[in-house]
Amino acid sequence: MGFRRASLGFTLVELLVVIAIIGILIGLLLVAVQASRKSARLITCQSNMRQWSLAMLNYAQAHQGYLPRRGQGVQITTSFYRPDDWFNALPPFMENLSFMTLLGDNLTPQPGDTSVWMCPEMAEKVIPPTNPPSDPTADPNKMYFSYGMNMWLSTQQSIKPDHIDKVGPRTTMVFLSEGNGVHCSLLPAAPTLIAGIYLNFSTIARHADMVNIAFLDGHVAPFRSDYVGCGVGIPDRPDIRWIVPDSSWAGP
User: Fold this and answer.
1) 134 DSSP assignment
2) How many C-beta atoms surround the C-beta of residue 205 within 10 A?
3) Which of 33, 53, 88, 133 could potentially form a cystine with 218 if both were Cys, beta carbons 3.0 to 4.6 Å apart?
């Protein structure tokens, strides 16, 4: 009686099944890696905003509770040399150079930089600058703000900047949010027609449909874009406040 020698190889069907399984596993792995990277970029952005928030708190402590100025409002940023604007006033409290110093040294933050200035999700400007800068030697294409201060805080129209204890609860008043790169101060807003030009100074969601918000007490949290009002307008939310009560600024 003879015996059949057992086959040591795969049949074609078995080989195809193994290849399919490997393909599925690779696909799942890629999805997991991509999700992990997105999560890491979200956390990096939050860390940047916490550093700005801590600098703001230290600045307020050093200035009798007064906040830095917001910089320009609805216009694309073209003024960079006021020392009390947040992007110049706060970096020294993080042992960093002010924006105007970086500008003078031709070292302004750019997309892809790894620094407290840059959200890692933002690779390029959403809206290119169209107005000439106040300094004719400055190239507007080199101006970049990954984050923007709450446009309602410490406006240039007020004689004094806002006091941190006189704008309502710190836990709900917005200090900083994510923007399009060319505005140093932001609000949830629909594109606005000003002098024949549509300006979009709205905070935006860069992390899928999530946007990071930093508050005056120093904490940072992510929110859905529709909850914040990105690209639409300021919603009535008890936990996210933008409007400063009794402000001398009437709004955009």
Assistant:
1) S
2) 19
3) 53
Could you give the C-alpha distances from 8 to 1, 12, 17, in angstroms and in order? 22, 13, 17
Place of tokens 């507007």: 140
Q: What are phi and psi of 228, to 5 degrees?
A: -75, -30
31 pLDDT higher than 70: no
**Main-chain phi, psi angles of 211, to 5 degrees:** -130, 135
Q: How far apart are CA 51 and CA 31, in angstroms?
A: 30
Cβ atoms < 10 Å from Cβ of 88 = 22
Read off the pLDDT of residues 95-127 as tens digits, 9 standing for 90 and up: 999 999 999 898 888 888 889 999 988 765 444
Could you tell me the CA-to-CA distances from 244 to 30, 38, 232 in Å, in that order? 45, 33, 19
Q: What's the chain's average pLDDT?
A: 84
Q: What is the model's pTM? A: 0.81
Q: How far is CA 174 from CA 9, 25, 106, 144, 215, in A?
A: 66, 43, 31, 21, 4
Query: Which residues are CB-neighbours of 243 under 8 A, at least 6 positions away?
Result: 152, 234, 251
- Long-range contacts made by residues 198-202, C-beta under 8 angstroms, separation at least 24? 199/74, 199/75, 199/76, 200/126, 200/127, 200/231, 201/73, 201/74, 201/148, 201/151, 201/252, 202/230, 202/231, 202/232
Candidates 149, 166, 176, 179; CA nearest to 247 is 166
Q: Which residue has the higher pLDDT, 232 or 3?
A: 232
Give pLDDT tens digits for 192-205. Answer: 776 666 678 999 99
- In which residue are the tokens 């140093």 written? 184
- Name the residue with tokens 């599925």: 24
Name 193's bridge partners.
198
Assess contact for 175 and 215: CB atoms under 8 A: yes
